[in-house]
């Protein structure tokens, strides 16, 4: 069972080079916390990345709502990622035909493929979403430094994903020529996939409050790691809205990590 294995041992099973890097980073830095830096000002994102950087393995962005996006912002974000040793994920949730996702990934204002170690994509278009994203990286080994998390489930109440969709998403993540490009799956349950070389990223994590006003559903850090099989817990407002964000990041980091240590020890 994949949830019983340590991150170190799973690094060796990963087919994606970025997944291998992330498993090893998590094990050595002792953190399985992803910060969802959902803020609209570049400087606020950089500030929180600097404060929370020591506690996270991954920083997740939505660059399309950053009001003052610039190349300088990306340069600074990359240098913080290097200094504090975390990876960058752009949560773009690509969901179009191959040619379009290729352009959305590589071109435009954001040039996501030039800086994001990881991106997210819906499986709705089928395998061609992976082929399209890979095409933006050009020939050669470029895809080895980049990876995709495929969405197989969502935390939003009333979402339309059913068991068949989950099963087929799992097939896209684990079968075929592009599996070396898939780093993991965004989902809510350990039953969604079994392959231990993939990472389970689970959003909807908060210590208190169980829902927000717009359909988000929350679980505690312990619940997502031990009952839902998450390898990485994604926390946004649980940290962003705390009076002391650094301390909140530390608390989430400690609780998510302790839950993982417990999970592999049992
Ligand atoms: P928060 O902890 O503030 O609710 O933020 C959750 C983050 O995870 C958001 O950036 C959201 O886009 C993302 N997310 C989610 O909440 N549920 C999903 O199923 C998939 C997501 O990417």
Describe this structure in words.
The chain has 266 residues and is of the alpha/beta class. 39% of the residues lie in helices and 15% in strands. It has helices spanning 7-11, 17-29, 42-52, 71-84, 98-106, 128-136, 163-174, 221-227, 237-240, 245-265; strands spanning 33-36, 58-61, 87-94, 118-122, 147-151, 182-186, 199-202, 232-235. Strands 1-2-3-4-5-6-7-8 form an eight-stranded parallel beta barrel, surrounded by six helices. Strand 4, helix 6 (128-136) and strand 5 form a beta-alpha-beta unit. It is globular, with a radius of gyration of 17 Å. Bound molecules: 6-hydroxyuridine-5'-phosphate (BMP). Residues 36, 38, 62, 91, 154-155, 186, 203-204, 216, 234-238 line the site of 6-hydroxyuridine-5'-phosphate. Residues 32-252 form the Orotidine 5'-phosphate decarboxylase domain. The active site is at 91 (for ompdecase activity), 93 (for ompdecase activity), 96 (for ompdecase activity). Pathway: Pyrimidine metabolism; UMP biosynthesis via de novo pathway; UMP from orotate: step 1/2; Pyrimidine metabolism; UMP biosynthesis via de novo pathway; UMP from orotate: step 2/2.
Summarize, please.
Residues 32-252 form the Orotidine 5'-phosphate decarboxylase domain. The chain is α/β, with parallel strands linked by helices.
